[in-house]
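TL;DR need structure tokens for one chain.
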Amino acid sequence: MRKELTRTKQALDKETIREIIETTAYGVLSLNGEEGYFYTVPLSYVYTDGVVYFHGSPRGYKYECFQRTDKTSFSIVGQSQVVPSVRANNFQSVLIWGRLQPVTDTAEKLSALRALAEKYSPGIPDNEDEIQHSLNYAFMIKLVPEWISGKQAALEVREAAEKL
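>> reply
TL;DR here they are.
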């Protein structure tokens, strides 16, 4: 697992990293596919209590890949803006390395489903009905981070983007 950024001047501070993780709508998870291929899949998620939670159907290719994958990385792009004048991208991104674990505890699963509903459907009156329904059929898995890093575009790119 690679941990340190080569371009340390582009590292994001911990508060910005946390904000990107908590507010971005989706990220891309790397899973072990078939025949040595990686399966990278965009997923909605929620970050709560220092853990990233995903949910889905307990069947299908994604579920099969979850069964084969323990160590993974999860990439989140919090910002992306093409800056033509410098032929570059003004970006902010976060990369989380860690281990996937199925959520088998009912209370933890319920808490994660509620957190997902609050993130994606805040204030919707029938959220609890859907949560209780999902509790019986949804597969829930968590990513327990071992390392988190964040990176942003170089200063000259960010400065050029401000002029747009």
